Amino acid sequence: MVLSGFIFTYGAMGRQINYLGFVRNRFLRIYPLFIFLIIVGISVYPQNFSFSSLLQTVLGFSNVQGALNLGPFSAMFWAISVEFQFYLIFPFLLKLMETDYKKIFYLLGLAIIFRISGYLLDGNIREISYWTILGRIDQFILGMLAAKWFKELNEKRDKLFKFIFIPNILLIVIAMFVFNKLGGWVAVEPWKIIWPTIEGLLWSVFIVSYVLIFNKYTNLLSKFIAKIGELSFSMYLIHFVIIQIIINKGLFIVLDISPFKNAILNSVVIVVPITILISLITYNLIEKPFLKLRVKYLK
User: pTM above 0.85?
Assistant: First the structure.
């Protein structure tokens, strides 16, 4: 979520956005693989199909009850909905930030206030903060602000962000540890009102620091990482399908070590390589032909 805000803002700041061209490109980026997985998922789980749920999912509300439930095929659809809702308002947010970037902080505060309101009205704060644009808008906006600050870095700030790269990674690890100890995703607790903002801040600093340190490298490792980034949309949508198949069919390794180490081992040796391999196929056959149809939307 932070990365989306960062990338789009970095590319579009100071330029005029053709709104229809921008939205068209987002459709071409997301919907081919999205529709493909819907078709495959309906074929596997035809009993879960209804026209109303299909319409709701395709229209970008798969993060709301009543959308298609296609098992592992639709497990990541919620993020597509939240991302696309952000895309629809991004040009307006960018205009707001360029006019008076301080106003964007009011929007951050407003999102937190509405999450508090949802909690006080007995809403499920975990669902609100995790599944919805109301919970994720903090992270998009912080990514946008990170791009603005990155463009405005001077030599002094440049050194500062490079210096805090390692401490920031440690903070991220500590934050994940604390998140786990507080109950993890399953916890429905008031601290989740502010958690999206904390995550967004940590990853914003990480992205700026990472780019400052590594964007000058063109070695094989950086090219490999860039290639993985190219496949990342396919990897994100299909990895849960692969995990589910491996679990259902018992295609995993079990050694006489802790469950955590077994999980890491199976992820590295089985899940990640298979996910990358299948993503290479889906990217080249489904995503790439439509990506070539994208138009220029920046002036």
Answer: yes
Spatial contact of 245 and 282, defined as CB atoms under 8 Å apart? no
Measured between its terminal Cα atoms, the distance across the chain in Å is 25
The H-assigned helical ranges of the chain are: 2-12, 19-44, 51-58, 77-99, 103-120, 125-131, 133-151, 155-163, 165-181, 195-214, 220-248, 259-266, 272-282, 288-291
Cα dihedral sign, 66-70-71-77? negative
Cα 68 from Cα 51, distance rounded (Å): 9
**Taking a C-beta distance cutoff of 8 angstroms, is the pair 41, 74 a contact?**
yes
pLDDT tens digits for range 1-55: 999 999 999 999 999 999 999 999 999 999 999 999 999 999 999 999 999 999 9
CA 51 to chain centre: 28
Q: How far is CA 184 from the centre of its chain?
A: 18
pLDDT 10s digits, 143-171: 999 999 888 887 777 777 778 889 999 99
Is residue 236 a contact partner of residue 38, using CB atoms and an 8 Å limit?
no
Measured between alpha carbons, how far is 208 from 151 in angstroms, rounded to an integer? Answer: 10
What is the Cβ-side half-sphere exposure of residue 75, based on CA atoms within 13 angstroms?
13
Q: Are 92 and 38 in contact (CB under 8 A)?
A: no
CB within 8 Å of 42: residues ≥ 6 apart: 48, 49, 54, 68, 70
